[in-house]
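Holo prediction. Input below; ligand is 2'-monophosphoadenosine-5'-diphosphate.
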Amino acid sequence: MTGGCLLAGVIGWPVAHSLSPRLHGFWLGAYGIDGAYVPLAVKPEDLGAAVRALPKLGFQGANVTVPHKQAVMAHLDRVDPLARRIGAVNTLVVDDDGAIEGQNTDAFGFMENLKDSAPDWSAESAPAVVVGAGGAARAVIVGLLDAGAPAVRLVNRTRARAEELAATLDDPRIETVDWTARAGTLEGAGLVVNTTTLGMSGNPPLDLDLTGLAPEAVVTDIVYTPLETPLLKAAKAQGLKTVDGLGMLIHQARPGFAAWFGRAPEVTPDLRATLLQALGAKAE
Ligand code: ATR
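Structure of the complex:
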């Protein structure tokens, strides 16, 4: 690092669990970039002051994570249309005039991960089933709709929340399905996505019978702790193609890195291995 080092970081509370410093640190090291990406532990009540300080401190920008992705929007100079539609911001970019723009790269990360890990799958060819209606689901659904999915079947324990999400996205291709009817909705689907916290270490698994899925369907989980969730394990056992959630985390980081540090980064097996090692170390 020199005095001219480019700065970025991740704003969260808590933030110690975040893999982003390792992820960006890996790329900075691999490309020999004079830059730093640091964890920024910011309490909810300090969010506005911290965000407004970024340009003053010379930051190129930052990622924003739990619990600030929605609240941060009130403190920005601009929010790009995609982030506005998703209703959340995960990437801040400071421009030459010091203005802060909010972007959302989660939909991009989700779709790029599928492109990378399941190249034979295509969004246009069959309906997708999305389980969950929280913030992560919104990004996933927008990604699928923009990629031309003929239908998105949205299943959530609390149906009213699914209906609310469908109403705000206002796209006739979104169909809400009752939680009790979730297994039936897999018929003819080309993709199943778990966006809930079910299956994450310490949580119960997602109870979803996959036997009605077509053999060419892909099953993916945004949870990556563990990497192979019970859902992915069941899908594999049935011979289905699976895509884990770590790739989404990696791919969503690409646009921010490029904007802050001036180089489009690559997703390599070495990077994945580094992050897996970090996850393993944390689980101990
Ligand atoms: P995020 O914004 O990260 O997606 P969230 O807003 O807390 O997180 O959403 C969590 C999702 O997991 C929701 O869809 C939630 O369902 P409800 O809307 O019914 O709460 C779902 N979820 C969490 N625990 C669940 C459980 N035990 N069974 C079914 N769904 C669950």
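The chain has a mean pLDDT of 97. That is the main takeaway for now.
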